[in-house]
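Usage

Read records sequentially. Each one opens with the input sequence:
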Amino acid sequence: MKFGTKAIHAGVQPDPTTGAIMTPIYQTSTYVQESPGKHKGYEYARTQNPTRDALQANLAALENGKHGICYASGLGATDAILKLFKPGDEIIASSDLYGGTYRIMVRVFAEFGLTFKFVSLDNPANLEAALTDKTRLVWIETPTNPLLRIVDIVAIAQITQQRGIRLVVDNTFASPYLQNPLNLGADLVVHSVTKYIGGHSDTVMGAIVTNDDDMAARLKFIQNACGAVPGPQDCFLALRGIKTLHVRMERHCQNAQRVAEYLQQHPKVSQVYYPGLPDHPGHELAKRQMRGFGGMASFELVGDSLPEAVRVMESFEVFSLGESLGGVESLCTHPASMTHASIPKPEREANGLKDTLIRLSVGIEDVDDLIEDLERAIAQI
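and closes with the structure output:
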């Protein structure tokens, strides 16, 4: 079954009672049992919910995995993965990654005895040099947030598999439409469903997909035992968003390519980060492991003036200044003060993340309007 068909049909069936083509919202906290322990497969809504079950099956199919497990947020999913490990275990993560991931690792789980290293993993040799006999997990984003670096999943997976180390790929920026890390050797794929999968800026959710039966069983136990589950209304909204994921992603990619090309030739722009540009260091790798270059782009202005960068962001009329990404509407974000503020400034700068960087989530509006908006905003400086 091709992706577009899976997005619409995988894991979902017409309601057996009414024939409703859309998965019902099972807004219930509990289920009536015929006798103690004798029920229809559902006991309590934290443990199971039919709307959530449909979404989890759908997401597993989209990532070519066996098991999908949903959580109340992307960080809820991250939290569940980190709970698979014990004090003394070492985790190596991409040095360029979402600030919330860094925060939960350093400010929460390091307090419980996990050890974290942040390494530039766009060069697999850096991973080889960082590994120790305590390394249990490698965590990568590709494309990375916010510098859009591309990490070679196959090369990293070969290293982790040889040593029996687990590999997690945060696939949020790419979505399952553009990239399937399980096919490339990853053990776990994590998503902020809030972003491209939901696609309409109206729900918060996270998900994990895996083919590993043992890890799936443990993650499902954590999902139920710790309780960070999404509600059925949010699951319904995510299912609805997924039905147009393939169509939306094509437009996101087309628009982002045009926007990046426009910014690259602008005399007031010094640097553009977008893997669809031929001079991007990861361009050829992205062509191999992705089916498109995505809807995210970042850029810096000539002169690296923070007041000028702020003035540009304040001057947009179509792009909205806000956190998050992946919705149908275009957003701009200032990572240093918003999504990545929890990473200390020296670490941000050491990784190449300047205070003047502007990140764009390019939506699916008419691209000429987006370019006009950029033209108008940049003209203010």
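Summary fields computed downstream for this record:
- Residues 59 and 247 are 17 Å apart (CA to CA).
- The first strand starts at residue 67 and ends at 71.
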